[in-house]
Amino acid sequence: MGDEIEASADAQLQKRRQDEVERVLRHSTLDPFGILGVAQACTPDDVKAAYRAKSRLIHPDKTDHAQARDAFERLKQAESELMDDEKRTSIRAMMGEARRELLAERQKQAAQDGGPAAGEGSAEFEAAVLAKYKSIMVDIEWRRRQKLKQQMAAEGRAAAREEEAALERRQRRDADKAWEDTRDDRVNSWRSFQSKAKSKGAAKRKKPAPY
């Protein structure tokens, strides 16, 4: 009898582990509050407690679920983000913004339709808030990547201009060096020319005038 009870308890625990892995994986990585199962007003202590409890359930060494490692990594990421005061505040702010935008949209639509707006707190409304939040975050990420692409393009153009300028400076230095290297030859050629010109002039002066 005791063995049966123990086996039943083990089976129930394994079921809980499997269910928790599935629950974590259902949540987007953009929703660390949902992954950890804590309220948005949570404290760091709440985050720690939730992480300890859930990590014991879904640790890959504790369950044979095929995606346990993925769920555990997602859980660790959520804990890391919410333990960071700046990130936690930022995520709260963005979720709050998503809630306000959605509520304004629903109220505007309700006014046009002449019916009641979907109330806050319903499961449907909260799911829509999360979808709106994801949309905002995707848009922010897209804008960030576009800005980075433009910045890299500008840096590439600046680098190309600098490379052209450097090439022009090298060519100028090479030309100056070549000019200096042939200076003695030019001076000697000029002196030789001058010397020959003087000799010819002297010869002409010595030539007697014809009668």
From TrEMBL:
Protein name (database record): DnaJ domain-containing protein
UniProt cross-references to PROSITE patterns, sorted A to Z: DNAJ_2
Domain J: 31-99
SUPFAM superfamilies: Chaperone J-domain
Compositional bias ranges of the Basic and acidic residues kind: 158-188
Alphabetized PANTHER family for the sequence: J DOMAIN-CONTAINING PROTEIN SPF31
Compositional bias annotation for Basic residues: 197-211
The species this protein was found in: Coemansia biformis
Any single Pfam family the record assigns to this protein: DnaJ
